[in-house]
Prior knowledge:
The chain is mainly beta. It is built from no helices and five strands.
Amino acid sequence: xxxxxxxxxxxxxxxxxxxxxxxxxxxxxxxxxxxxxxxxxxxxxxxxxxxxxxxxxxxxxxxxxxxxxxxxxxxxxxxxxxxxxx
Length: 86
């Protein structure tokens, strides 16, 4: 049998809140270069992720994968923790 390859998008971000039960909030940072002035600007977006075992702490670098809607705002779940906060 062949192994199934996931086609779901993954996002990497830093945990900014882990107060809620089984939920963490991560901040995604996007860099954008202006087409004329060539100035680099940062855009941020906060995403709620499902953290089943409450493993995330503030400052952790995590990878989340998109999934079916789990609640009104949660559309991602925790895949793995890349780096723990110091």
